[in-house]
Specification:
alpha+beta, eight-stranded mixed sheet, five-stranded mixed beta barrel, 37% helix
Length: 567
């Protein structure tokens, strides 16, 4: 390389241009090289180690050297490596998917290549190679559909799209904790296993060991048949005989050693009889009582489920520690194959004491705007990738939401707007009338057509909302609110919670739910009840909104849906 090409970078070197090795890894992150304002040019002539996976590789100069694009997942950009044949066998290094850990010298590319990249690495030593057989590697260099990649969830993070989504997801999670910690919220871990149905929908995964236990018993009874009634009677007779022997010895005032020995034999007979009786009672199949499954014999001695929401549990901490939030996986056994449904998904659920529906809406809006601005400030390179490959409006959408005051209107006002649209000829698949749950097409009309802005709809009909929501003075509506955004429709659902004991008890019964599992929840209203509000943000929906990806199965690392639970 010409000396003139290197000189400008060398002259501009400062102490800040030295780049440290990763504290817990024997390499420098590619991000720390390529995302500098100068694209890494100021690091020319430095010797360092990098590691990553080959995106593209090709031999040049009749096999004398190879160009390799290496990516370690720290950023979307690849670092170009130049490896000469005297360093090692080039054919081993170039296949897509190969893992390389190398040491080399950063250098400026030739002048005619400097528009494409500001820096490249000349490899002087290959430290480790994780080789790939190109004939068997399932992810070729050609562009692959997201649907195809769902069959390779263990390898799809190596693709540019899934890697970008993973970094965006990480940024949104970090932003979530940053927002709530900044505003004095306490992070609470709520249980995944629960005995309460928060939504009252009944579409819950059951947690039980009864099936496993039944299978164990069936195998046990096949290999070791249960005792007969004769065996039980014989064991009882043996206990009776040995009991009579002990009684006679005591009556005859026999010696202590003789009585003690007889008591030992009696004890053994009783233990043996107990075991035989216990095995005699073993029956194949799931235990039942009064014709119903006997959950008293289950692991938790009652029915248990995977949670659909951490809200009810986190309310216990809100009613003591004021401002709290939970962020974790939730589950829904809904047999849906749409692009908007998963069986396992993540929810962000804050709960605020001494807060009404107005405070709730204010917090929800601030949180969503914070998330959008965070991506613009910290994930712009990945967002630019999404704009190029999937949704040209993704960044504009983030900018709009981050800078716009959300429109607020009551449910009744929203229905009136939709009815007016119908009267003017707009066609909806779902009928518009007061009392319906707004469909996705209604939500998108409000956000994308009518207002071209995020919208918060509040004061929904009581009959379509959960039992815990605050009943308004009109007795027809509840203090519920949904945050609607372009692209995905409902992003957040929340409400002021009903703090009146008698009212919420009546609501539970109205919904046809049993009181017993919610007695602890009612205690929060019996003892020191407090006005409080909260909401839930569907985390994957936020990622769909941000990225413009169409299917929710592509924005969660390991999607679970009917028929699929890989890994």
């Amino acid at each position: 390389m010409a000396e003139a090409a290197i000189t400008p970078a060398v002259n501009n070197l400062t102490l800040s241009d030295t780049i440290p090795q990763h504290e817990f890894s024997q390499r420098v992150l590619i991000r720390t090289i390529l995302t500098r304002p100068d694209g890494g040019a100021g690091l020319a002539n430095q010797t360092l180690k990098v590691g990553g996976w080959v995106k593209k590789g090709r031999e040049q100069g009749k096999g004398t050297f190879a160009f390799i694009e290496l990516n370690d997942g720290s950023c979307p950009a690849n670092l170009q490596l130049i490896i000469h044949s005297d360093v090692g066998p080039l054919g081993q290094f170039t296949p897509t998917g190969t893992c390389l850990h190398v040491e080399g010298v950063l250098q400026m590319p030739p002048e005619d290549k400097q528009g494409k990249q500001a820096i490249e690495m000349k490899v002087v030593k290959v430290l480790d190679v994780g080789s790939v057989d190109p004939a068997k590697y399932p992810l070729p260099k050609t562009r692959l559909t997201l649907e195809f990649l769902r069959d390779y969830v263990h390898l799809r993070p190596r693709t540019n799209t899934i890697a970008a989504i993973a970094r965006i997801r990480n940024a949104l999670a970090y932003a979530t904790h940053t927002f709530f910690q900044k505003h004095g919220f306490l992070y609470v871990h709520t249980p995944i296993i629960t005995t309460s149905d928060c939504e009252g929908a009944g579409e819950m995964f059951q947690v039980t060991t009864l099936i496993n236990e039944a299978e164990k018993i069936e195998k046990e009874l096949i290999t070791n048949p249960p005792p007969t009634q004769e065996d039980v009677d014989s064991a009882k007779s043996d206990v009776k005989v040995k009991g009579e022997i002990v009684a006679k010895l005591k009556a005859d005032k026999a010696g202590k050693p003789e009585i003690t020995a007889a008591v030992v034999e009696l004890t053994k007979a009783k233990e043996n009889c107990s075991k035989i009786e216990e095995r005699f009672k073993l029956k194949p199949g799931i235990p039942k009582k009064d014709g119903k499954i006997d959950y008293g014999q289950d692991f938790f001695a009652r029915q248990a489920f995977l949670t659909v929401s951490g809200q009810l549990q986190v309310e216990t901490f809100a009613c003591a520690l004021s401002s709290v939030y939970t962020f974790g996986p939730t589950f829904r056994a809904e047999h849906s194959h749409t692009s908007r449904h998963l069986a396992e998904f993540w929810m962000v659920e804050p709960e605020i004491a001494f807060a009404d529906i107005e405070d709730d809406m204010k917090c929800a809006e601030a949180y969503v705007r914070f998330l959008c601005q965070w991506l613009l400030d910290n994930c712009l390179d990945d967002m630019e990738f999404m704009v190029e490959k999937f949704d040209k409006n993704a960044i504009k959408r983030l900018q709009m939401v981050a800078s716009t005051n959300f429109v607020r209107l009551s449910y009744t006002e929203a229905v009136t707007i939709l009815e007016e649209a119908v009267s003017k000829g707009h066609k909806f698949e779902n009928k518009v009338e007061w009392g319906i749950d707004l469909a996705s097409e209604h939500e998108k009309f409000l956000t994308e057509v009518k207002f071209e802005s995020p919208v918060i709809v509040y004061n929904y009909p009581k009959g379509i909302k959960a039992f815990y929501m605050k009943v308004n003075p009109d007795k027809k509506t509840v203090a519920a609110m949904d945050v609607l955004v372009p692209k995905v429709g409902e992003l957040i659902g929340g409400s002021q919670r009903e703090e009146n004991y008698e009212v919420i008890k009546e609501r539970i019964l109205e919904m046809g739910l049993p009181l017993e599992p919610y007695e602890w929840y009612l205690d929060l209203r019996r003892y020191g009840t407090v006005k409080h509000s909260g909401f839930g943000l569907g985390f994957e929906r936020m990622i769909l909104f941000a990225t413009g990806i169409d299917n929710i199965r592509d924005v969660i690392p390991f999607p679970r849906y009917p028929g699929r639970a890989d890994l």
